[in-house]
Design goal:
The structure holds two protein chains of two kinds.
Chain A lengths: L1 H14 L3 E5 L8 H7 L3 E3 L4 H13 L3 E7 H5 L3 H9 L6 E5 L17 H6 L5 E3 L7 H9 L5 E5 L12 E2 L6 E4 L4 E6 L2 H9 L6 E6 L1 E2 L7 H10 L1 E5 L8 H8 L5 E5 L12 H7 L4 H14 L1
Parallel strand pairs in A: 1-2, 1-3, 3-4, 4-6, 5-6, 9-10, 9-12, 12-13
Antiparallel strand pairs in A: 5-11, 7-8, 8-10
Chain B lengths: L2 H22 L4 H18 L5 E4 L5 H10 L5 H5 L30 H15 L8 E6 L6 H12 L5 E7 L2 E2 L2 E2 H4 L5 H7 L3 E6 L3 H10 L6 E6 L22 H9 L4
Parallel strand pairs in B: 1-2, 2-3, 3-7, 6-7
Antiparallel strand pairs in B: 4-5
Helix pairs in contact in B: 1-2, 1-3, 1-10, 2-3, 5-6
The chains are: A alpha/beta, B alpha/beta.
């Protein structure tokens, strides 16, 4: 998704004279073309994220629209208070772009994984979150952020599973997509975890309504199709590549009318865990297409 | 405006400041008193219409409110609400509350990075506004924060000649003397090493401040280390850590007021 972001960013830089890209010393083999186009509207702020976020606010207060890029934990957790106080309290159009959602950084290790980002950012005032499900949703997500007057966050990730290309419906505003229709349950894949989900539940025998979601706050009114599906099936399965506490599953659950069954499949941290690829980490915590399929079949069986 | 005009203005601000704190039963008196002369200098001498001032030591907010009040930028009606239920003026500056207070501070180490961004925009991005300057007032205890030094590194590297840092060095922080909690000295040489033009001054002597500001030369960020006295102007508060926290009793207020002479 990083390449897709680079392309979208070049377009923003070219069409909006107030757009800027600020990087926390990252972007090798990705941002070279942007730098060539952006001139003094690109800034490498060095390995100093607290200052970087403050600088972005100062630029925003001066009338610019900074897009601030780093690896998710360094962009979000390292300077969380700067995001809260300086960006969110002042409702500034600072756009945070985090690479490596979930286990994307795999063998790079736990310090590079991003399994708490949505939880902490969701709690901040005036914040909007976008977590594209597929690379082709990055450009529309960038456009959506560009149209917001206040803060927003873009979570870029790479799924360990092949990207499903055909969907039957998309809401261009919320980026929610429907991939299959069925009657037994409603399956919601969050962000790039949608790909793993689709690998598990597209089988017609599961008979599920399958959606991917890409935006918080989730608007049940704008995504009436999802609301309608849930009211018919009364059974929901959410899959996400983010810890359960504070994840999208929890947020969806509290905003839903009463349903018969609500299950969230999410990664968990365990003492003594081992390290490997994104796919290895997902398997290690039991989050596999097989497990998703088993949960879906169990819910279908309850009907 | 000469030194005696500045002295008169600062005395007027001190009077208002003490009145506000007495009626509100609010603490952070010592830290406000150490900043008032600096704020007088910044607002009366340094700051032009196009410039920005950021109070990074947010616990000095009431001194800023009193200064803006004395300048006619805050009305009696708004000021009346200071520290009360439903106010726009809490103990630390709030976001989007007043056009002359651009940043909500109170967590230390936030102001300088933002000042950097404004200075960087004017200097390196938006060439039309090259004359804009930014001043940022820090406390010395605040310089414990790593973000201050990230910001200093950035300002030096980008030669932000339109940025001026003023450190209100009163030598006392939250729970001890700065030199005992985490020694910052030599503070001037630290900022120099980060690429700043530096000078030191007595932060309560307007002639000394003027002379020190005039020594801040060259196209690089500037840093004035203002040696101040916490609780300045109220004899029984000077250099006393407890006045970081305590509100005044009626007797203490009367005594403090009696020491303010125009």
């Amino acid at each position: 998704m990083r390449a897709d972001f680079s392309k979208a960013m070049i377009r923003k830089i070219q069409t909006n004279s107030r757009a800027m890209l600020i990087s926390g010393d990252l972007g090798f083999m990705a941002f070279e073309e942007i730098i060539a186009v952006a001139g003094n509207r690109f800034l490498n702020a060095g390995v100093a994220e607290q200052n970087m976020m403050g600088v972005a606010c100062g630029l925003a207060m001066s009338g610019y629209q900074p897009w601030v890029y780093s690896i998710v934990p360094f962009l979000t957790l390292r300077c969380l208070e700067q995001i809260r106080n300086d960006v969110c309290f002042h409702r500034l159009p600072v756009r945070l772009v985090g690479n490596g959602g979930g286990y994307t950084y795999g063998i790079m290790g736990s310090t590079h994984h991003a399994l708490e980002d949505l939880a902490v950012l969701k709690a901040l005032p005036n914040m909007n979150l976008l977590f594209p499900c597929t690379p082709d949703q990055v450009a529309p997500a960038v456009d959506a952020m560009d149209s917001l007057p206040g803060p927003s966050y873009l979570r870029l990730g790479i799924s360990a599973f092949p990207t499903a290309s055909t969907f039957i419906w998309e809401n261009p505003e919320t980026l929610t997509r429907q991939y299959a229709e069925g009657k037994s349950l409603t399956v919601l894949g969050v962000g790039h975890a949608a790909q793993m989900t689709l690998n598990a539940v597209l089988d017609p025998s599961i008979d599920a309504d399958v959606f991917s979601i890409a935006r918080y706050p989730f608007d049940w009114h704008k995504d009436g199709k999802v609301a309608e599906s849930v009211s018919h099936t009364r059974r929901v399965l959410v899959v996400e590549e983010h810890y359960l506490p504070g994840g999208m599953g929890e947020s969806l659950k509290v905003s839903l009318p009463c349903v018969d069954h609500f299950e969230i499949l999410a990664p968990s941290y365990s003492v003594g865990q081992l390290y490997g690829s994104a796919r290895f980490h997902l398997s290690q915590c039991g989050l596999t297409p097989e497990a998703i399929r088993r949960s879906a079949e169990r819910q279908r069986g309850l009907r | 405006m000469n030194s005696s005009d500045l002295r008169r203005f600062a005395t007027q601000v001190r009077g208002k400041f003490l009145e506000m704190h007495f009626h509100a039963k609010a603490g952070h008196i010592g830290s406000g008193l150490s900043s008032i002369d600096l704020l007088a200098y910044i607002y009366k001498i340094w700051l032009r219409e196009e410039d920005t001032f950021i109070l990074s030591k947010g616990h000095g907010a009431s001194a800023l409110y009193a200064t803006l009040y004395a300048l006619g930028r805050i009305s009696d009606e708004l000021m009346e609400g200071y520290y009360k239920e439903g106010t726009l003026f809490p103990a630390h500056p709030a976001a989007l509350a007043h056009p002359d207070i651009p940043v909500a501070t109170g967590s230390l180490g936030h102001g300088l990075p933002i000042a950097n961004g404004i200075a960087y925009a004017a200097r390196h991005v938006d060439r039309d506004r090259n004359s804009k300057r930014v001043a940022c007032l820090l406390s010395d205890g605040e310089c414990d924060e790593g973000s201050v030094w990230e910001a200093a590194l950035f300002a030096g590297h980008h030669r932000l000649g339109n940025l001026t840092v003023i450190v209100d060095a009163n030598g006392l922080q939250g729970f001890g003397y700065t030199k005992e909690v985490m020694n910052l000295e030599p503070l001037e040489r630290k900022f120099q090493a980060f690429g700043f033009a530096c000078a030191e001054a007595n932060g309560h002597d307007f002639d000394d401040l003027a002379a020190a500001f005039s020594r801040l030369e060259g196209d690089r960020p500037k840093c004035l280390i203002a040696r101040t006295v916490k609780g300045k102007g109220v004899s029984f508060m000077e250099n006393k850590m407890e006045w970081h926290y305590k509100p005044m009793s009626e007797e203490e207020y009367a005594l403090a007021v009696s020491e303010q002479q125009l």
